[in-house]
Write a structure and sequence with these properties.
The protein is an alpha/beta fold. It is built from ten helices and eight strands. It folds into two domains: 150 residues, Rossmann fold (3-Layer(aba) Sandwich); 88 residues, no CATH class. It is elongated and about 70 Å long. The model has no long low-confidence stretch (mean pLDDT 96).
Length: 243
C-alpha cells in the first residue's frame, strides 16, 4: 500500500530564479558582493569573474558526487584560493543574507497547496527532499510559499550530506518517513536526479514534465501539472487494492 509521497522542491513545488542562480552560478561572487556591501572586503579587478570561474569548476564536479558540498564548504574553498578570509564568522552571516534575499522571488507552483492538501487529507505522509547547498533556505522557501503545514518531513542534500541521485539520499528520507521504498512515490521535474535516482532506490516515480528530456529508465507516470498527481495515485491505490 502506498503510504508516502516525496516531492522535489525547485520547479516542482516552488519556483525561485534568484535561488537557482546562486546555487548554479553565482554562489561565491554573491557572497563576495555581500561582504563588500558590508564593508568587510575591497573588491579588486577580476575577483568576481575568477570567483564565478572557480565555482563553475566545483559545481560541475559536484554533480558527479554522491555527497553534497555545502554552500559554506564551497565558499570556504574558493575564498582560500582567492586569499580571502574564509572563516565561518565571515562566511556564515553573508550566506544567510544572500539566501534570505531570494525569498521575495519564491512563488508556489500552480496547484501546489491544493495537491498537498488533498494528499494529506487522503492519509499520505508527505515530504520534500531537494538538492540544495544551504539547508535553511529550503525551510524558509516552503514557509514563504505557505506549504510547510502540509508536510511531515523536509530534508535537503546539505542537511543530510547525500545528494540526488544517490540511493543513500533516498534511503535516508524513507527511513525518516518510516516507510520502505515500495510504499513511497517520488515526484520531481529533473529526470536524471529525481526519476532515475528514485527508481534506483526502488520507489515509484512520477515525472512532472518540464523542459528536460527524459534519459534513463521510464518513469512510472508522467504528468503535466501537480494536480494530475492525485488521479495517478488514486489509480495506483485501486490497482493495489484489487490485487
Amino acid at each position: 500500500m502506498l503510504q508516502a509521497v516525496v516531492f522535489d522542491l525547485g520547479n516542482t513545488l516552488i519556483s525561485c530564479r534568484s535561488w537557482f542562480r546562486i546555487e548554479l552560478e553565482t554562489l561565491v561572487s554573491a557572497t563576495l558582493l555581500e561582504l563588500a556591501r558590508q564593508g568587510q572586503l575591497l573588491l579588486t579587478d577580476g575577483l568576481l569573474a575568477e570567483a564565478d570561474r572557480l565555482f563553475a569548476e566545483i559545481h560541475t564536479h559536484s554533480r558527479t558526487l554522491e555527497h553534497e558540498l555545502s554552500a559554506a564548504e564551497i565558499v570556504g574553498r574558493v575564498f582560500a584560493q582567492l586569499q580571502v578570509d574564509n572563516s565561518p564568522a565571515t562566511i556564515d552571516p553573508a550566506l544567510d543574507t544572500i539566501y534570505r534575499a531570494c525569498l521575495p522571488d519564491v512563488v508556489p507552483c500552480a496547484g501546489a497547496a491544493e495537491t498537498l492538501g488533498h494528499l494529506r487529507d487522503a492519509g499520505y505522509r508527505l515530504a520534500v527532499f531537494s538538492n540544495a547547498r544551504y539547508a535553511p533556505f529550503v525551510h524558509w522557501a516552503l514557509d514563504s510559499a505557505g506549504l510547510t503545514p502540509y508536510l511531515h518531513l523536509i530534508e535537503s542534500s546539505d542537511g543530510i550530506g547525500w545528494r540526488k541521485p544517490s540511493i543513500p539520499a533516498f534511503e535516508f528520507v524513507l527511513d525518516r518517513l518510516g516507510v520502505v521504498a515500495h510504499e513511497a512515490v517520488y515526484v520531481g521535474d529533473y529526470y536524471p536526479f529525481d526519476i532515475v535516482g528514485a527508481k534506483a532506490a526502488g520507489m515509484g516515480t512520477i515525472w512532472l514534465e518540464r523542459s528536460y528530456s527524459p534519459t534513463g529508465p521510464a518513469a512510472d507516470a508522467t504528468v503535466e501539472a501537480l494536480p494530475d498527481v492525485i488521479p495517478v495515485l488514486q489509480r495506483w491505490q485501486q490497482e493495489k487494492d484489487a490485487t
